[in-house]
Amino acid sequence: MSLQSDNISWTSGGAAIVKGVTLQVPEQGVLGLVGPNGSGKSSLLRLLAGVRRGSGGAVLVDQRPIDTIGRAEIARRLALVEQHATTDVVLTARDVVALGRLPHRGALGGWSARDEEIVQRALARTGMTRSAGQSWSTLSGGERQRIQIARALAQEPRELLMDEPTNHLDIRHQLDLLRLLLSLGTHVIVALHDLNQAMAFCDEVAVMSEGQLIAQGKPVEILTAELIGEVFGVEAMIVRGPNGPRISFF
Ligand SMILES: Nc1ncnc2c1ncn2[C@@H]1O[C@H](COP(=O)(O)OP(=O)(O)OP(=O)(O)O)[C@@H](O)[C@H]1O
Fold it and tell me: Which residues lie in coiled coils (predicted)?
């Protein structure tokens, strides 16, 4: 198991926000993190990415506690795409993607043809080649989101952590992004609100509720009407159709 948390907790201002989560990231495929607003998904992603230190327990990368690993090594290994990217940056879209190459460059390392090729490929995979020269500050919310994802891809991480990456994206770009995640052949952990997207695109789901991980496994086994009712407080029915199971809400 290359990335896992072992009973990780995080407390802020006396409030327990993440409560003893033991999560195993599968060796391949897409792990969807689902749960109501405020259930701790973003906080857990930040702990897993080493951006935040836990108050108890550990995050392990290849069995090594993440807080014993240097920043650059973590960044060559893990990329986190957060919900809110800053807006006051005087860079082009391509420059933002190029930032993803920083952890791979030594102190004296210059910009190589390979770096440029990786940046161009990341722009192409996210459908942003035509906007490469545009100023970051003028991009729409959805375009910024795709550029942040391109930056993360340029990092060539083994684990890609994404916090609601479909936010701001229109339906075509949501589906393109989810298909892209499936095609990456890397470990992806993605917080999603749309349970039908989690059902259709994730190899596994992990369900957070009030700071705790309450279930993890195959979407069709975990996202039952009973669990959805308990965790989200809504009535749901699983409908089995020709394209797989769908969740209907009442
Ligand atoms: N730095 C902080 N200090 C205090 N409380 C915080 C902090 N960050 C988050 N919280 C609280 O922790 C809880 C979990 O927040 P988190 O953002 O992890 O949830 P989430 O599941 O990602 O929510 P959402 O689906 O709304 O994005 C929330 O109640 C939030 O207000």
Answer: none
